[in-house]
Amino acid sequence: MNVVDETLKANEAYANGFNLGGLAMPPSRKLAVLACMDARLMVDQVLGLKTGEAHVIRNAGGIATEDAVRSLIISHHLLGTQEFAVINHTDCGMLTFKDEELASRLRKETGAAAVAPARFFSFQSLEDNVREQVHKIKSHPWIPRHIPVRGFIYDVRNGKLQEVRA
Ligand SMILES: [Zn+2]
Known about the structure:
This protein has 5 helices and 5 strands. The protein is of the alpha/beta class. Zinc ion (ZN) binds next to loops.
């Protein structure tokens, strides 16, 4: 059995005990989280969130890319979220390479150039990366100034979140 088949099996059990079919579309706690995709960072568990309570937007590095910002804009303006959090974590894979090294390796391995992605958004400092994403979100003209945007680093060794001051 491959892993997707295993997950389908798990879903059968999940659906058997399912009783959340009546939840509303807007997140009940009016929170949107942008986080790295790292498998050790289970955002719902880390933040004590339940089904229906928050939007969780994830990508490699927790980067406020055009697409992540698109989701945040929809999250606030169409679905009513009122607070945003950005979460990076220790031991992030994005600290381990440089954009140009990966791009050139992939060009070599595949023999093909590609227009997208234009960047991988690798970074050297977690704190600086979090600050940069918070700033990108806060300064977007379609994100109202009154929305708090806070940044955090999750420690994969002890489970703790630490706030990154602006
Ligand atoms: Zn990461």
